[in-house]
Amino acid sequence: MSPHRKLKPDSLNPDTPSSPQEKLKFLVFSLAVLAAPWPLAGGYLTNVLIFVGINSMLALGLNLLLGYAGQISLGQAAFFGLGAYGSGVLTTRFAMNPWLAMAVVAVSVAAFAFAVGFPVLRLKGHYLAMATLGVGVIAHIAFNETVDLTGGPSGLSGIPNLAVGSFQFDSDLKNYYLVWGFALVAVLLSLNLVDSRVGRALRAIHDSEVAARVMGVNARLLKVQVFALSALLSALAGSLYCHVMTFISPTSFSFHVSIELLTMVVIGGLGSVYGSILGALLLTLLPEMLRAFQDFDIVFYGLLLISMTIYLPGGLVRGIPALFRRLWPVRRSHA
Amino acid sequence: MLRLSGIGKRFGGLTALQEISFRVAPASITGIIGPNGAGKTTLFNIATGIYPPTEGAVLLEGKDISALPPEKRARLGLVRTFQNIELFGKMTVLENVMVGLHTQTKSGIFACAFRMPWQLREERSIRERAKRWLDFVGIAELAGVEAGKLSFGKGRLLEIARALALDPKLLLMDEPAAGLNSKETQELAKLIKSIRDRGVTVALVEHDMDLVMEICDSLVVLNLGSMLAEGTPKEIQDNPAVVTAYLGEE
Amino acid sequence: MNKLLTTTVVSFALTCLSTVALAAAPIKIGGLFAVTGPASFLGEPERNSAQMVVDEINKAGGVKGRLLELISYDTGGDASKAVQLANKLTKNDHVVAVVGPSTTGDAMAVIPIFEKAGVPLVSCAAGIKITDPVKKWVFKTAQNDSLAVARIYEQLKKEKKNKIALLTVSDAFGSSGREQLKGQASHYGIEIVTDETYAPKDTDMTAQLTKIRGSQAQAVICWGTNPGPAVVARNAKQLGLTLPLYMSHGVSSKKFIELAGDAAEGVRLPSGKVLVAELLPKSDRQKAALLAYIRDYKNHFKAEGDHFGGHAWDAVMLVKNAIEKGGDTPAGIRSQLEATRGFAGIGGVFNFSAIDHAGLTKDAFVLVEVKNKNWTLVK
Amino acid sequence: MEFFNQITQYAISGLSTGAIYALIGLSFAIIFNSTGIINFAQGEFVMLGGVLAIVSITALHLPMPAAVAVAVVGTTAVGLAFERLAIRPLKNATPLSLIIVTIGASILIRGLVMLIWGKDTKALPPFSGDTPIEVAGATILPQHLWIFAVTLLVIVASRLFFHHTITGKAMRACSFNRRAASLVGIGVGRMVLLSFLISSALGALAGVIIAPLTMTAYDVGVMLGLKGFCAAIMGGMGSGFGTVLGGLILGVLESLGAGLISSGYKDAIAFFILLLILFVRPQGLFKKGETDRV
C-alpha cells in the first residue's frame, strides 16, 4: 500500500486488489497489538498504550486527509474535542447510553465537518492551514465558554466507563483492548480505502488536482468527504478518550494537540497507514522515554523533531527500512 | 462534436483570446496550430473547464457545457492530456490508468472501506480494463512502476492510456509530440490514428508540422489570441496569412 | 519469543528482589506537579517545597527511622499525562501516598485512579470539586476558592460596596473563582454588574476595563494568575480607573508587585498567611511553621517561598505525620489523615474528618494590600 | 458621550494591539516570501527579543539602548543559526517538513530559554515612562506610540529595501520564481539566509518594544506567533501594507468583540470573521487572484 517504495515492476503485485503480503502484514500487526499488554503485565505502560491507540486513530484520520488527499488541517483537535465533549455531555448531562451517544456524536461531527468542509476546502495551502486553525481555535473557545454544558475550563467529570451489559471497561487492560479494537478496525478500513477507487482518486488529487478533475474525479466533493471521514475518526477517538479518562478538560483539545497530531503524521510517514501508527507510538512514548532528562526533555524533544525531519525525510515508515538497508546492505538482484 | 462559439479570455488587462469560433467534426483529427503565445493551451484550458471563458460558449454535442466543472465535462466524454504531462507521479502506472476509469465505477467511501462484494468485482474488472489500455499504448510491462519514474516518452503514452480509459468521445491533446524523438513521434502518429479509428474524436495542439500535416483532417490556426485560418491541411499550407504569421515569427 | 521469555524472567526476578529489599527500603511517596506548562507557577514551587521538606525530614532522621523517598513527575498541566503518571506511581512505583497534582483539572482526572488503587492522594489544587463530595482516598491542602471569595466579600460588605465588576481568566483557576464569586454574591447582598473574562495569554485588557469603567461597578475583582492580573492593574492605571481593585490569591507573591510595578499600589487580595508571616501576632498558631518554611525555602532555592509551595509542604507533612501514627500502608495513612486535628501548617490549621477532607476555614486567608511595594495587612 | 468614548478606546486599544500583530506578521511574511516557509518559530524570535532585552537589563545592567541592541543581535544570531543548522540541511524539503522543522525549532528555543532563564514572567521598564496620554477621549501609553512608530518605520524601510535596493529586488525575485532567480545568477541560498536575518531581527525588535506592555516569558511566543500569522494571511502574505492592515483589523476586531459582544468569545469572533473573509476572498484581503497554470 505504501506508494513510496522504490518499486520494481514485480514487487507491487498489481494483480490482486489486496495482495497476500498486505494481509500478512495486517495480521502480524494485529497479533502484535493483541499480545503487547502481556509482557507489560498490566503495568502503567499498558495505560500509555491506550493513549497510543487513541492517538493512532487521530493520526490516521489526519493522514487520510493530509497524506493521501494532500489537504492540511491544523484544527483536528476540534473534532477530537467535539467527539469527547459530545459523548461526555450526552452521557453525563442527558444520561444517554454511551454507545448510542458515541454513534450519534460521530455522525453529527462528520456531518458538521462535511458542512464546514465545503467553504474551508476551497482554500489552498497556507490559507487552508489558517482556516482549519481558525476552526480549531473557535472550537477550543467554545469548550471553554459553554460552562453550563461542558463545565468550562474546570472540566467535565463523572463520565461513565463504557460497558457491554454488566461488563465494564474499567481497567487499563480492558480499555486497551477496547481502544485498540477500534483502532485496528480503523486501520483495516483505511488500508482497504486507500487501495481502492476512492483512495486512488484521493492520491490523484494530491499529485495533481487539475489532472484528477480532468479524469472525472469530483475533487471538491471527495476532499470534503475525506475531511468528514477524518473528523469521524477523530470524533470516535474523542468519545473513547472521554470514556477511558472519565474526565475531560479543554486543554486536551487545544491548538497544541492539532500541531502534535501533524507532527505524528509527518514523522510517522505521510501517506502511510502504518506510518500514522508509528508516529503516534513514537510521539506518545517519547515523553516517557525523555522523562529521565527531567526539565531537559522539551529540548530533546525539539532536537529530535528537527533531526528526524532532516535525516528521515520520508518519515519513520520509510526511513527505518532505508536505515537498515544502509547499515546492512543486501545484495539485491537487479532486473 | 465540439463547438466553440465566440470564446474570449482576458487575464486582468491582458487579452489572451478573442472571438474564437470553430467546430470539431466527429471522428476526425483536428489540429490547432499557431506560434508560441497564440493562446492554444488557454483555449484547451477553457474547453476542459479549468478556467471559465470571459465570453463565449463551449458546446459538446450541441449541449452548452460552459458552466460545467472539468469533472462533469469528463463524464460527458471530454478528456485531455497536458503539455507537461500531469501524471500521478507517486502512483503506479496501472493505478494511473485505473484513475482514468474512475467515472465508470461507483463505489463510495463506505463500499471501498468495507470491501463490499460489488466493489471487489468492480475493482477486478477495472484492473483488467486498465491493463488492456496499457497494452493498447504498448506499455503493459510497466504496470507496476511508479509513474514518476517513467521516461518522458513513456509518460506521454501513459497519459494517453489514462485518458482513453475514460472512454472519451473527444480527446484533446496538448502538444503530444513535444519531447519525443522522431521514432517515438512516428509511433505516436500511428497511435493517434488508431484512436480516431476507434471512433474517438481527437483535437490536438501541436508544433510538429510534419505530424500535423500527416494526421490531421482539418486545422485551425491561431495567432495572438485570434483565429487566423481554418481548413484542411492543404488549404492551410497554401494560406498566405498563415505563412506570414509563421515567417514573421522567425 | 525468546526475548519475551527473557523479559518476563527478568521482570519477575526484579519484582522478587524489590520485595525482599523492601524491609530496609525508604518509604516511597509520589508527587504529581505541573512543573512545566501554563501552571508551572504552581508546580515548580510545589515540587521544590515537597523535595525540600522530604530532604529536611530525612536529614532529621526520617520517619520512624526510615527514610522518605519522593518520586515526583511533571504532568505539564496535561490531564492525559497526569493519568498516565498516576498509573505509573500506583502500579510501577508502588508509592504509599501521593501529593499533588497542582491543578484542579489534573486532580479531577487522576482521582478515579487513586480511588480504585486505594492510595491516598493529598491534592495541592484548590478546586472545591476535589473534596466535595468527599472521596474516600482524596484530601487536599489548598484553600478552597470559596474561602478566598468570602474574605473579599466580607470586606466589601464592611465598606458598603455592593455593585462589583468581575474580570476573570478563562482557565480552570479563573472559572472556578468566577463560579464562586457569582454563587456567593447574593449571600452578601452583592450585585455583579459586569462579568468579563480574558484569555490566559491575552496581552491587553483595556477593552474589558473600558466596559467596566462605563458600568455602575464600585469595585473590580480580577481572578487570575500571573501575568494577566499584572496587565489588568497596568491597564487600569492607563485608563485612569479609580475603582478599588481586588485580586485573587493566585497572585499572592512578590512577583505580582514586580510585574505590575507602580500599578500594584493599592491592590488588595486574600492570601495565605505566608505572605505576611512576619506581621502576624505571636499568638498565631501557624507563625512558627510559616517562618520555618520561609527560612528553609530561602536556604534551599535562594528564592521566596510562596503559599503554593506551602500546599505541598503541608501535604508532605500531613502524610509524614500520618505515617508516624499509622504505619506505612496506604490504608493506614488514609485513616490517620482523616483523623488529623489541629495541624498548623502553611495554608492554615487543618482539621480533617470523615465528612471534611479539605479541613480549613476562612481564617486561612488574610486580606492584604500593596503599599510601597510591599504587603500590608488590611484590618 | 461615554459610549462614544468607549468606542474610541476600543478602537485605539485594538489598533495598538493590532500594530503588534502587524509587526510580527511582517516578519512572518518576509520569510514566507523568499522561501515559502511558514515559520512556526517566528513567535519564538519575538519572545527571545523580549527576554534577551530584559536579561541584559537585569543581569548585565546595560542601559536600554544597549539592551535593545543585544536583544536584536542575539536573536538574529539564533535566527541565522536556525537557518544554517535546520533549514539548509533539508534537501528537497516539502512545505510540510519545513513546518515540522520550524515547530521543532520553536520547541527547542522555548525549552532552552526556559532552562536558562526560568519560567517566570518578566517585565521590561517602558522606554519613556508610563504616564497615560489622552487621545480623543481614549488613553494610550507612550509605549504604544513607540509601537506605532516602529511599525511605520518598518513599513517604510521594507518598502525602500524591497523596491529600491538590488538585494531587496533580488529577494523579491526569489519569491516570484526561485528557479528563474537562480538562473539569472541570484544566490537563492544567500537570499534565504538574508530573509531569516531580517525576519529574526524584526521579530526581536517587535519582542523588545512590546515587552514593557505585555511582559514576557518563555511561553508567550506561540500565541503572538499565531496572531502574527493571521495578520500575514489576511494581508495575503505580502511584506507590505496588506499585512499591517491585516494585523490592525485583527486587533480592532478582538477589541470591539471583547467590548461590545463578549470578552470570552473575542478570539472566536475575530477568527470567525477572518474565516468569513477567507471564504469570500480566498486569496487574502489584499492580493489579486491567481490562476493555476498547467
Protein architecture, described:
The complex is a heterotetramer of chains A (335), B (250), C (379) and D (294). Chain A is mainly alpha-helical. Chain A contains 15 helices and 4 strands. The model of chain A is unreliable at 1-17 (pLDDT under 50). Chain B has 250 residues and is α/β, with parallel strands linked by helices. Chain B has a single domain, classed as Rossmann fold, CATH 3.40.50.300. In chain B, β1 (2-11) and β2 (14-24) form a beta hairpin. In chain B, α3 packs across α5, α3 runs parallel beside α6 and α5 crosses α6 (152-165). The relative contact order of chain B is 0.18. Chain C has helices spanning 2-21, 40-59, 79-92, 104-117, 145-158, 172-185, 206-213, 228-238, 254-260, 287-301, 307-326, 330-338, and strands spanning 27-33, 68-74, 97-99, 121-123, 138-140, 163-169, 191-198, 219-223, 245-246, 268-271, 343-344, 349-350, 366-371, 374-377. Chain C is α/β, with parallel strands linked by helices. With 294 residues, chain D is mainly α. Mean pLDDT of chain D is 87; it is low at 289-294. In chain D, α3 crosses α8, α6 (166-176) packs across α8 (188-214) and α9 (221-234) crosses α10. Chain D is built from 11 helices and 2 strands. Chain D has helices spanning 2-35, 42-58, 64-87, 95-117, 142-164, 166-176, 178-183, 188-214, 221-234, 241-261, 266-280, and strands at 133-135, 138-140. Chain D has one domain.
Helices and strands in order:
The complex is a heterotetramer of chains A (335), B (250), C (379) and D (294).
Chain B: E1 2-11, E2 14-24, E3 29-33, H1 40-47, E4 55-60, E5 63-64, H2 70-75, E6 78-80, H3 93-100, H4 109-113, H5 117-137, H6 152-165, E7 170-174, H7 182-197, E8 201-205, H8 209-215, E9 218-223, E10 226-231, H9 233-238, H10 240-249
Chain C: H1 2-21, E1 27-33, H2 40-59, E2 68-74, H3 79-92, E3 97-99, H4 104-117, E4 121-123, E5 138-140, H5 145-158, E6 163-169, H6 172-185, E7 191-198, H7 206-213, E8 219-223, H8 228-238, E9 245-246, H9 254-260, E10 268-271, H10 287-301, H11 307-326, H12 330-338, E11 343-344, E12 349-350, E13 366-371, E14 374-377
Parallel strand pairs in C: 1-2, 1-3, 3-4, 4-5, 6-7, 6-8, 8-9
Antiparallel strand pairs in C: 10-13, 11-12, 13-14
Helix pairs in contact in C: 2-11, 3-4, 5-6, 8-9, 11-12
Chain D: H1 2-35, H2 42-58, H3 64-87, H4 95-117, E1 133-135, E2 138-140, H5 142-164, H6 166-176, H7 178-183, H8 188-214, H9 221-234, H10 241-261, H11 266-280
Antiparallel strand pairs in D: 1-2
Helix pairs in contact in D: 1-5, 1-6, 1-8, 1-9, 1-10, 2-3, 2-4, 2-8, 2-9, 3-8, 5-6, 5-8, 6-8, 9-10, 10-11
